[in-house]
Amino acid sequence: MSNKVNFNIGLKLIWVSLFCTVPVLIIVCILLAGQQKLLLENSVNASLDNTLNFAKDAINQDFYHLKNEAKSIATDPKLRRALDVASSRGISSRLNYIAKIRPEINYVLLIDNTESIFSATTSNYANEAMGSEVLLGRTISTHPLFANVFEKKASISAPAKDPFLSELNLPLGYSQWIIAPVIVRGKTNGWIVLSYKFEQTMSDFLQKLVERLQNLNYAALSSSIIDQQQQVIATTSKQQSKSLTRQIKMILGNVELQLIVNFDQKQVLMPLAQQQQTIFVAFTLLILTLSLTLFLAIRKILITPLNILNTTVLKFSDGELAHRVPISGSDELNILGQTFNTMAAQIASTHEYLETQVEFRTKELSSAAKQLESKNTALKKYTHELERSNKELNDFAYVASHDLKAPLRGIVQLINWIEEDIEDSLEEQTKEYIVLMHSRINRLEKLLDDLLAYSRVGRLHGDFNKISFESFITDIFQLLDPPESFNLVYQGDIQAFYTLSVPLEQVLRNLINNAIKHHDKKQGTITVSAKLIDDCYSFSVIDDGPGIVPEQHQRIFNIFQTLKPRDEVEGSGMGLAIIKKLLETYNQKVKVNSDGLTGTTMQFYWPLEKTLRKLINE
């Protein structure tokens, strides 16, 4: 393992050295290759530009001759006389002669001053009949090659598709019109039109250009001419996928065209590729030589000392804490070994101390675990006793409130009998005592009912129902039979939702009833607000009564607690205790907000349907 570690260290050091030197060498090679490529491209481009300029000049020269020939034909006395006297007799043969000596001409037309075809060639250069009679008398103002080129001087149209070719059964392709005016007595009396086989003639010319470039050892593949709309109007063949393109602008008449030549990229750049390959081989040999030299030097200077240090560290890590690195000099590696020996001595001392502390802490943890286990047992016993006590208390409250109602009803009946028997002889004070007894019995009965309701909280949940909240609180308010001077206001955007309607009604009924019962005025407003907050509803019952002093905010939720004496306000003191216990059943709370002077806000939260179902099923 040590040899592998040291060998890896040597390789890393070599990589670091190469990382510092190789980028410089690469940059130098890239610069040299770029310079050579630039020189080669400049040389090739200069030669190609000369050849393309020669080709452009040849094309322009050819069109110059055609334009001059058209001008010469336009001065033919026979043509001028025919237009002047409006007689085309013998003109076709003259036009046929012109087409016969120029194979690059499709046809020749003589146009009169109404822009109509006055005469046309009837045969081509091969003496083949063309049936040009169909063209005579036709107006050519809409012809695509016309394009407003009729002027007082000779002109050349832009290359385009000629619809006359298909009518004359001639080969289709891009054509040009070379037009010259026929002047009679100083006025333009017509025009001579030469239909030039642009695509065919130029394609042949481009093919000869490619062959000439190939003969000059240029790797020409193809050539083409395109117009300003990037349409190919003459070409030798399709462009190859990997090729170098050279192009030059040329003007034919008033039209700007592009002459393009495509070259074999691989063959053109072959000298550059060979030169780059030579540079790559030299660079590779240089890197290998440098790597070998670095490896041998690093092996002698670093790997052997590191091997000794690595062996010592491995033995130390295997538990031989007394093992140390032999020191044989004062260089950096020996200083590192000496530092390791000092560290190893400190680790051995610390190890011995930690073993003593671990043994001591183990004993302490064992004792603490036994004490914790004893306390857990006691806590479980206490919890069990508390649960049993709470159950017995709830059962007692239920039994007491239920069983005490029977003798209480008997007392009420007995008082009624006494009142009936001595009704005629009752004194005013006795009547007051009887009324007071009835009041106390009713209060006791209400107390038993509330005590029974308190013991039942959490046992029965009822069913889930869809409630319209505004109608829900309105029904509760009306069932409480409030004074006519009290009114209910709803604030909120919650309308209908599914929930446990029974416990929610019990909470709202107690809160609204308290707001009415403890009000200090003859008229008042009870406001109920509702809104959705995160994963629960927030309900508030707000009154404009006397308020509750902050010191009483917690006390009022205890059982049998009232803010006023029961002789002033009837109540068992169980309503808010029932609300608190019921909300705690669903993991919710109720809180009071009042300064004790004006009004009270009782706010509580109520779970959503999915939360309630989860709580009930647990």
Distance between the termini: 60 Å
| Count of DSSP strands | 17
Largest sheet: 6 strands, antiparallel
- Form type: flat
Uncertain segments: 1-6
Helix fraction, binned, reads 40-55%
**Number of helices, counting only DSSP H or I runs of 4 residues or more:** 14
Superfamily (CATH H level) name of the largest domain: Histidine kinase-like ATPase, C-terminal domain
**C-alpha-based Rg, rounded:** 58 Å
The proportion of residues in beta strands is 15-25%
Give the CATH class of the largest domain: Alpha Beta
Q: Would you tell me the overall average pLDDT?
A: 79
Helices, strands, pairings?
Blueprint: H1 2-74, H2 77-85, H3 91-101, E1 105-112, E2 117-120, E3 155-156, E4 160-161, H4 164-167, E5 174-184, E6 187-196, H5 198-215, E7 220-226, E8 232-235, E9 243-252, E10 255-264, H6 265-268, H7 270-317, H8 332-403, H9 405-421, H10 428-456, E11 464-468, H11 469-479, E12 486-492, E13 496-500, H12 501-517, E14 524-533, E15 536-543, H13 575-585, E16 590-593, E17 600-607, H14 609-617
Helix pairs in contact: 1-7, 7-8, 8-10, 9-10, 11-12, 12-13
